[in-house]
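User: Hey, quick favor. My workstation is busy. Could you predict this chain's structure for me?
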Amino acid sequence: FDESYLKETENPYDMALVGRGYFNIAGNNATYLTRNGNFNIDAEGYLVLEGIGRVQGRNGDLRVGGSDYTITPHGLVYDNEGVFVDRILVTAPAEGTAIKKFDNGMFVADAAEDIDAPTVYQNHLEQSNVDMNEEYTGLIEAQRALQACASALKMVDKINEKAAGLSGIS
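Assistant: No problem, here it is.
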């Protein structure tokens, strides 16, 4: 749930959040929360997350019409003529609510609260927050622990063999 660094893209549909909150995607039978802002546009001009559903504004499905639109850092959406369309809906799970995780960074929360002042960057994507150095170090530590356990089991096996040989059990 930690934020990461942003990568600038040339795609006007890409969006990234800074700080607390999630984009809301109306999918099959649920509203999904995600930080994945790799959006596109459908045939009817609605902003969508491919394979999941339509991006939500405060007034429902967010229709931008085409690629010539603007989203301000406060999440306000304007069309190509500068006319206000809607505000992108950014929410966070309410305190103590149950959260169900799905594939591809999708979540469903029993209750969510609006983020009044989200920070949204158009033409940016949030990158993975996985620290590869930390993960690689953890992998090496786990591998060494496995090797140590395997060595200990070999020693126990040899001791059992010798004990069985001394007692005449074959």
